[in-house]
Design goal:
It is a single chain. The chain is α+β, with helices and mostly antiparallel strands. It has two domains: 33 residues, no CATH class; 115 residues, Enolase-like, domain 1 (2-Layer Sandwich), CATH 3.30.390. It is 34% helix and 25% strand. It is built from six helices and eight strands. The strands form two sheets. It has a six-stranded antiparallel β-sheet. Strands 1-2 form a two-stranded antiparallel sheet. The longest helix is centred in the N-terminal third of the chain and has 15 residues. The structure holds flavin-adenine dinucleotide. The site of flavin-adenine dinucleotide has 9 residues, from helix 1.
């Protein structure tokens, strides 16, 4: 964001994400820098991306292909929303899936996709996991409220395997 001494750039002009939340995130960091306050640098590993279509399509971090291209040993897991209890209750319009991308060597999620009636909302927990490198083992041992759409995340965790 530091273009030259005394000039900062934030938002679309930086070419990072092209989202309102990206501009807001960068604004806070730039203001902190301008005021000389300490704090972490910008971290783009867990930028959420949501397309407000029907169903909503949310994703965070690396896609499976991007992770493989970076040389990550990938394990992926997928669960279909209609196969979950909440998907069955929802009936029409329950199309969707949760896909997880794990760095198998480190045992952490590096990316995730959440498609469904509340795909953008379900994405939040996945963004927390990617941003904070929550161990997959810890995620597996969580309790997922029944019958929320988030239970498809538990199903996708159970599906994580080498491809
Ligand atoms: C149709 C559409 C839908 C979108 N939906 C979403 C969404 O759902 N969620 C999301 O996160 N993002 C969405 N975005 C992206 C989001 O709008 C941008 O990422 C965000 O607005 C970027 O903020 P910015 O401050 O960088 O630029 P902008 O918001 O574009 O602000 C730049 C400002 O600079 C002004 N300006 C330009 N040139 C000059 C000049 N020479 N002198 C003075 N002023 C100038 C412009 O008029 C504008 O007001 C959408 C974008 C579009 C086009």
């Amino acid at each position: 964001m530091r273009v030259e001494p005394g000039v900062w750039g934030i938002g679309d002009v930086t070419g990072r994400g092209l989202f309102t939340h990206m501009a807001m995130y960068q604004a806070e960091i730039a203001v902190r820098d301008i005021l000389g306050r300490p704090g972490p640098d910008a971290d783009y590993r867990a930028v959420p991306r949501v397309t407000f279509s029907d169903p909503e399509v949310g994703s965070v971090g690396l896609t499976e292909r991007a992770a493989r291209d970076l040389g990550v040993r990938v394990r992926s897991g997928t669960a279909l929303v209609p196969a979950s209890a909440r998907g069955w209750i929802h009936k029409a319009g329950n199309d969707g899936l949760v896909k997880l991308v794990e760095d198998a060597d480190r045992g952490v999620l590096v990316g995730a996709t959440s498609v469904g009636p509340t795909g953008g909302e379900v994405l939040f927990g996945l963004a927390v996991a990617v941003a904070n490198e929550v161990p997959v083992e810890g995620l597996r041992n969580m309790v997922f409220a029944y019958p929320t759409f988030r239970r498809a995340v538990a199903d996708a965790l159970a599906d994580l395997g080498d491809d």
